[in-house]
Write a structure and sequence with these properties.
The chain is an alpha/beta fold and about 500 residues long. Helix content is about 35%, strand content about 25%. It contains 18 helices and 20 strands. It has helices spanning about 40-50, 70-80, 95-100, 110-125, 140-155, 170-185, 200-205, 225-235, 290-295, 320-325, 335, 345-350, 360-370, 390-400, 420-435, 445-450, 475-485, 485-490, and strands spanning about 5-15, 15-25, 30-35, 55-60, 65, 80-85, 160-165, 190-195, 205-210, 215-220, 255-260, 265-275, 280, 305-310, 310, 325-330, 405-410, 440, 455-460, 465-470. The protein starts with a strand and ends with a helix. The relative contact order is 0.11.
Length: about 500
């Protein structure tokens, strides 16, 4: 008997059909991949199954019985858990308190010794190295994601929905997650695995459901499917040449960084980036890439010298960074990049409020970036929450492009973006470089660095340990430097 069955499940918002009537069957111990472009209906399906929103029509059968989940508490009690792409933790609470929040027994008192013991077991299962007592605000994004997974495991789920679970995980951490999923499968737990990383979906899923424009267009075994086949199903057309051709760059240096030190994160970082050049930053999560760039942008303490076109910016402050033409697009778009309670045009204009000092100016600017970045929304006055994750990321980029920078740093620019939107983002990055903008791309996806960058600087343990260019930019070359192994071993 299937653990989950949907019959004509659909959701409509006014005139917008977010999910057309969907029939879906999920067996116990089955790992089903759910893929599609942003706006295809994946998030809507997850919200319906998790009880976050109610269907317009259709029904859900859970363990053979018609289920009416009134809210997320109902689905959690039934055994459905979701590991969100956007972190859902209370940063000022400890790991153990986040994991067991709402699960207190008796009269609401916490059995501290027991929760700590159980948390230690859960953290070991997900390969986490931090303590149960650690505050979540002190953890990296990747570590916080591991807490989310541990929290789902603590609730004895019968169905777990993973939403882009490896987006912020390193390769070893991702491999550990796949082991966890394999173990859950053996225990009879059903998995819905939502991801834009097609190689992962093809590797670990026994069945793949493809959504496009709110409709199910495929539901089949991955056998015989290639990444290209899957991408074509997602976008409804042949997707070729995802990476644009590299254009030559100037020899003029746009930004130089000398002896940059960020206490506790990186030391003696020196590099330069030229006008029209795309410089990739490779390395494992925690290697210091993000912290170095945050210091350059003035949002983290650091020392050293940064010069734009030969002129020192002086102290590392946000004001100086903007004054000299440095922009930084954070990897954490909801935590640091956007104010999701505000409208789209308000977000896009946040960095230029002095110039865009009227509603009319902000609306015009918002509409401009919607068109230029192909953001899928009809009106820039709509709330940011009305956009998918990928389109929110485009707004975050647009906000900093509006400052007319000379150097733009893009930290994990395609995190949570589907394959079609990735191609658009790559074309945008290439176009910015072709206009003379110096671009730094921090990415944990090696194909991205290989396909985009003119050069790749590789970080390890807070230092730049090597630089690759041209045909040297390969997965083997990057990983050899990032992992600290010798060429002979890597070969």
């Amino acid at each position: 008997m299937p653990v989950l069955k949907t019959l004509g499940l659909s959701k409509q918002y006014d005139a917008t059909v977010a999910l057309s009537p969907l029939n879906l069957l999920v067996e116990s111990g089955e790992v089903i991949g759910v893929v599609g472009e942003n706006g295809a209906g994946k998030s809507t399906l997850m919200k319906l199954l998790a009880g976050i929103v109610q269907p317009t029509q259709g029904q859900i059968e859970w363990n053979g019985l018609t289920a009416r989940f009134r809210d997320a508490n109902d689905t959690s009690a039934a055994g459905i858990q979701i590991v969100h792409q956007e972190l859902n933790l209370i940063p000022t609470l400890s790991v153990e308190d986040n994991i067991f929040l709402g699960q207190e027994r008796g009269k609401g008192f916490v059995n501290r010794a027991e929760t700590r013991r159980l948390t230690s077991i859960l953290l070991e299962k997900v390969g986490a190295k931090f303590a149960p007592t650690a505050l979540c605000e002190d953890l990296s994004i990747a570590e916080q994601q591991l807490v989310e997974i541990a929290k789902a495991l603590s609730r004895e789920a019968k169905l777990i929905i993973f939403d882009e679970p490896t987006a912020v995980l390193s390769e070893p951490e991702s491999e550990k997650l796949f082991e966890i999923i394999g173990s859950l499968k053996q225990q009879g737990v059903a998995i819905l695995y939502v991801s834009h990383r097609l190689p992962e979906v093809l590797r670990i899923c026994s069945r793949i459901v493809v959504l496009r424009d709110g409709e199910k267009v495929a539901d089949q075994s991955p056998e015989g499917l290639s990444e290209s086949d899957l991408a074509d199903l997602m976008v409804g057309r042949k997707l070729q040449d995802i990476f644009p051709e590299r254009v030559p760059h100037s020899t003029d240096v746009s930004m130089s960084v000398n002896s940059l030190n960020v206490p506790g994160f990186c030391q003696d970082i020196s590099f330069s980036v030229r006008k029209g050049e795309i410089l990739g930053f490779g390395g494992l999560i925690g290697s210091g890439r993000t912290e170095a760039c945050e210091a350059i942008f003035g949002v983290r303490n650091g020392t050293g010298e940064v010069a734009i076109e030969g002129a020192s910016i002086g102290k590392f402050t946000l004001q100086n960074a903007l004054k000299y033409g440095i922009a930084y697009v954070s990897e954490d778009r909801k935590g640091k990049g956007l104010v999701v309670s505000m409208s789209i045009d308000e977000n896009i204009c946040l960095a230029c409020l002095k110039e865009l000092n009227s509603v009319a100016k902000r609306h015009k600017t918002g509409q401009k970036w919607i068109e230029d970045l192909k953001i899928k929304v009809s009106d820039s006055t709509l709330p940011m929450t009305s956009l998918s994750g990928g389109n929110q990321q485009k707004c975050s980029v647009g906000k900093w492009l509006e400052t007319n920078p000379k150097v733009i740093i893009l930290d994990e620019p395609t995190r949570g973006i589907d394959v079609g939107s990735k191609a658009e983002m790559y074309r945008l990055i290439s176009d910015l470089a072709s206009k003379g903008l110096a671009v730094i791309v921090i990415s944990s996806e090696m194909p991205e660095l290989i396909g985009l960058a003119h050069r790749v600087a590789v970080f390890r343990e807070g230092k730049i340990v090597g630089e690759l260019s041209g045909e040297q930019i390969t997965e083997n070359g990057i990983m050899t430097l990032a992992a600290g192994v010798t060429s002979e071993v890597a070969a």
